[in-house]
Amino acid sequence: MEEWKIGASSRHCFKCQAEIEPEADYYSAIVRKDESFERSDYCEGCWDGAGLDPQSAFAFWRTRWTPAPARGPRRIRFDPDVALEFFRRLGEDDRDGDEGRKLRYLLGLLLFRRKILSLQRTEDRDGKRVLWFAEKEGPSHPVVDPGLPADELSTVRGRLAELLDLDLPEAPAE
Q1: Domain identity same for 156 and 95
Q2: 85 and 150 both lie in a single domain
Q3: Is the dihedral of CA 17, 20, 26, 27 positive or negative?
Q4: Is residue 3 part of a domain?
């Protein structure tokens, strides 16, 4: 099983190393690095696009770190626009390799579950199942089912949660 080195928000600016204070706005970016993805955070003063190469920048967004209350569950805002753009970019070509295919599949299912994408049809292509997801007012996207075993599915879910800073519910036990 391959290891991906994508972390959750570091709460430190990638450029100046300053700590991002609670309730402060900052930017997060996901960039392609070799055959994997990497997340970097930037304070507002260092952002200005952070000199990111448009070919390697998959997604970026402005966010705010709100510390979890001392008691109670952590609430994470799900930004459907960021997730949908990441999904689209993962499907632009095949240069993202195996990791990109796995992330795209799982993200497609998440967006379908959240009713951001609809499932148009499924088909078999060269012995693999292909799901066709459609945006409400946009194009259709083919997504190949990578046939993830349960143990690997958990790893991919964890990486997707780290990339987009989400609390994903645990998968039901089989």
Answers
A1: yes
A2: yes
A3: positive
A4: no
Asked if residue 76 has pLDDT above 60, the reply is no
Residue pair 103/160 in contact by the 8 Å Cβ criterion? yes
Pairing of strands 128-135, 117-125: antiparallel
Torsion angles phi and psi, residue 37, rounded to 5: -125, 150
* CA distance linking residue 31 with residue 38, whole number of Å: 5
Residue 30 pLDDT level (bands cut at 50, 70, 90): confident
Question: 152: domain range?
Answer: 76-167
**Phi/psi at 109 (5° precision):** -65, -40
Q: Are residues 57 and 12 in the same domain?
A: yes
Q: Are residues 67 and 88 in the same domain?
A: no
- Given strand 36-43, what is the order of strands in its sheet? 36-43, 25-33, 57-64
Helical residues (DSSP H) of the chain, grouped into ranges: 80-90, 97-113, 150-164
Per residue in 97-148, pLDDT (tens digit) is: 788 889 999 999 989 988 999 999 999 988 889 999 999 888 899 999 998 8
Residue at 1 is within a domain:
no
pLDDT at 132: 94
Contacts for 98 with CB less than 8 Å, ≥ 6 apart? 2, 146
Round to whole Å and give the CA distance between 86 and 63.
16
